[in-house]
Recover the amino acids of this structure.
């Protein structure tokens, strides 16, 4: 406690040249002593408790996920177009998200889309009204087109038209 701390300083009966010398002494000697002496309640030194606690700590999630906890987000259900709205534009998701809820986060100039806390896609924010990733469009198109159709070519043509909107 603070009384012990002051008493330790007094017991040194020492005159420090300046404030910086006192601070250095506190940081190096007193803090070290305080962390290695057994705590009165637990009878275990704080450094030993910290070492034991570290065994149970896991790694932090990636930065995007960490920042997402602090960001405003939107939860939305994905319909058959595989698109969701974000600030007057629409963005695509994989077909695996169809009829499911996703969480959408904006971090800087990007939009991150999570389903069950797993990142499913990322988009750069755009002024275009409709923004499909080619692979998302092909996935959606493949379930609605007759077999034998050149889906890749059809997707490219349709995506060019969408960019012209």
């Amino acid at each position: 406690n603070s009384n012990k701390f002051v008493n330790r300083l007094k017991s040194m009966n020492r005159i420090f040249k300046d404030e910086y010398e006192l601070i250095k002494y506190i940081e190096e000697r007193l803090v070290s002593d305080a962390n290695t002496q057994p705590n009165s309640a637990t009878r275990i030194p704080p450094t030993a408790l910290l070492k034991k606690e570290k065994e149970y700590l896991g790694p932090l999630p990636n930065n995007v996920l960490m920042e997402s906890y602090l960001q405003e987000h939107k939860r939305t259900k994905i319909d058959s177009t595989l698109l969701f709205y974000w600030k007057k534009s629409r963005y695509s998701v994989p077909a695996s998200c169809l009829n499911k809820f996703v969480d959408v986060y904006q971090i800087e100039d990007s939009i991150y889309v999570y389903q069950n806390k797993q990142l499913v896609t990322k988009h750069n924010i755009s002024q275009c009204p409709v923004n499909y990733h080619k692979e998302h469009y092909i996935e959606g198109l493949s379930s609605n087109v007759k077999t034998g159709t050149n889906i890749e070519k059809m997707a490219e043509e349709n995506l060019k038209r969408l960019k012209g909107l």
In short: The longest helix spans residues 19-36. The chain has a mean pLDDT of 82. Helices lie at 2-12, 19-36, 46-54, 63-70, 134-142, 151-163. The CA atoms of residues 35 and 46 lie 5 Å apart.
